[in-house]
């Protein structure tokens, strides 16, 4: 059985990192603005846990702050078990801030124009989600359940999230009318594109390439501590301006990660070798090796 990526200790330095805290506060603030100023007053939905929370709030008039917390609890636990303790702590902080903002902050509806709501509401919540992901956490458990379920079933993140959102928008069409549901779909896709832009791509798999003078420690950490598979290429390092003739043999370590894992793996590797050269490449698809083969591929 492949060991799942997770950190056994909470990196409090990472949790209280000023940049990460700014991202979390800014991200949750934008999410509150989008939900209270655009979406909730007009019964517009986003996808994932946010969409489910708004939907149940509108139908049953439950407190939306409580819904956001309750629905995210099981997914925070999944993240704790499968991604890491630091990720879980940062996600808890983001979810609590979002719930507090939704409970205490009152914002008058900014506009009633449905197209403007779909575009700007989606853009603001998408940027907010992206900033929180950049901090190392999430404010929507759908991201975590997609990663967890993909490992168990072989279906892609996008397929799992699409299934969840199809159910949400179908219920919205039944309860609020087809037109509101259609505008909510526009909101969702606007949010997705905004998140893509902030996170710099949300491909379900990303190739991380590492060149380091401490390659053995890096390889051991990736495989034995983080549970990642690696591929090693032989290469040459050097070829720099002023010292082009000075070159040495090196190993180029390649590992495939999900976007939720990128930041924490980078932080871990930088602690081993602060001078490590790390670059990330977006890839369209990956299968085989220790990656779960798609269950429906054949």
Structural notes for this entry:
The chain is an alpha+beta fold and 298 residues long. It has two domains: 12-199, no CATH class; 205-283, Alpha-Beta Plaits (2-Layer Sandwich), CATH 3.30.70. Helix content is 60%, strand content 13%. The chain has helices at 12-15, 18-39, 48-60, 64-82, 85-104, 114-135, 142-153, 157-176, 178-199, 215-225, 259-272; strands spanning 205-211, 230-240, 243-257, 277-283. Strand 2 and strand 3 (243-257) form a beta hairpin. The two termini are 22 Å apart.
Short key terms for the protein model shown above:
Alpha-Beta Plaits; disordered C terminus; 2 domains; 4-stranded antiparallel β-sheet; about 300 residues; single chain; disordered N terminus
Q: How would you summarize the topology of this molecule?
A:
Elements: H1 12-15, H2 18-39, H3 48-60, H4 64-82, H5 85-104, H6 114-135, H7 142-153, H8 157-176, H9 178-199, E1 205-211, H10 215-225, E2 230-240, E3 243-257, H11 259-272, E4 277-283
Antiparallel strand pairs: 1-3, 1-4, 2-3
Helix pairs in contact: 2-5, 2-6, 3-4, 3-8, 4-5, 4-7, 6-9, 7-8, 8-9
CA-atom Rg in angstroms: 21 Å
Number of strands: 4
Question: What's the number of structural domains?
Answer: 2
> Could you tell me the mean pLDDT?
85
How many DSSP H or I helices? 11
Helix content: 55-70%
Summarize the main sheet.
4 strands, antiparallel
Point out poorly predicted stretches. 1-5, 293-298
- Binned strand content: 5-15%
Distance between the termini: 22 Å
Q: What sequence of helices (H) and strands (E) makes up the elements? A: HHHHHHHHHEHEEHE
**Structural class by helix and strand composition:** alpha+beta
Task: Tell me the overall shape.
Answer: elongated
> Which strands sit side by side, in order, in the main sheet?
2-3-1-4
């Amino acid at each position: 059985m492949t060991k799942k990526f997770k950190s056994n200790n909470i990196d409090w330095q990472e949790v209280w990192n000023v940049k990460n805290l700014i991202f979390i506060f800014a991200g949750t603030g934008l999410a509150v603005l989008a939900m209270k100023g655009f979406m909730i007053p007009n019964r517009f939905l986003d996808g994932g846990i946010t969409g489910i929370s708004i939907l149940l709030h509108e139908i049953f008039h439950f407190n939306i702050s409580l819904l956001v917390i309750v629905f995210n609890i099981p997914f925070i636990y999944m993240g704790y078990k499968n991604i890491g303790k630091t990720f879980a702590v940062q996600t808890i902080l983001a979810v609590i801030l979002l719930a507090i903002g939704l409970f205490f902050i009152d914002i008058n509806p900014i506009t009633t124009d449905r197209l403007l709501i779909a575009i700007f509401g989606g853009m603001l919540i998408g940027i907010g989600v992206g900033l929180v992901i950049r901090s190392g956490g999430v404010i929507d458990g759908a991201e975590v359940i997609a990663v967890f379920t993909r490992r168990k079933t072989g279906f892609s993140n996008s397929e799992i999230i699409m299934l969840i959102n199809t159910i949400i928008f179908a219920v919205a069409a039944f309860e609020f009318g087809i037109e509101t549901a259609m505008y909510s779909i526009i909101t969702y896709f606007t949010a997705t594109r905004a998140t893509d832009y902030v996170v710099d791509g949300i491909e379900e798999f990303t190739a991380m390439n590492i060149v380091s003078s401490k390659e053995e420690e890096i390889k051991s950490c990736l495989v034995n501590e983080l549970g990642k598979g690696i591929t090693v290429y032989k290469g040459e390092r050097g070829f720099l301006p002023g010292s082009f003739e000075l070159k040495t043999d090196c190993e180029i370590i390649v590992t495939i990660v999900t976007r939720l894992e990128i930041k924490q793996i980078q932080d871990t590797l930088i602690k081993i070798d602060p001078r490590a050269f790390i670059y990330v490449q977006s890839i369209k698809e990956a299968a085989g090796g220790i990656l779960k083969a798609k269950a429906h591929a054949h």
